[in-house]
Amino acid sequence: MANQVPCGGWNGTEDATEETQKICDAVKDQVEEETNQKYVVYKAVKYRLQVVAGLKLTIKVFAGEEDYIHLSVFQPLLVMEERLSWSTSYKETPKATPSALFKR
């Protein structure tokens, strides 16, 4: 996630990285509680980010078979001493279905 992104702007959609997966794993319990589902398969596949007072990420997560969910996650600046927070998720099926979150 070291690409140059202008402050306030979104980067293009990129393949998920190990760091992206770690962020997804950090909010998995919250996502499962909110969606009332347990995800056996939960693999980050794509992401976009926006630099604000931290990083705002939209992450596409493969959830098994033909299911995908989209997570909206905010990672505050380290100096703010806040924790990672997840705000929303959206379910999408199948893989080929375009998502408004990833269009650009």
Structure overview:
- It is found in: Cytoplasm.
- One of its GO terms (biological process) is cellular response to bacterial lipoprotein.
- GO terms for molecular function: cysteine-type endopeptidase inhibitor activity.
- Pfam families: Cystatin.
- It comes from Champsocephalus gunnari (Mackerel icefish).
- The mean pLDDT is 82.
- This protein is of the alpha+beta class.
- Helices cover 17% and strands 37% of the residues.
- β4 (68-76) and β5 form a beta hairpin.
- The longest helix has 18 residues, at 18-35.
- A five-stranded antiparallel beta sheet has the order 1-2-3-4-5, covered by helices on one side.
- It has a single domain, classed as Nuclear Transport Factor 2, Chain: A (Roll), CATH 3.10.450.
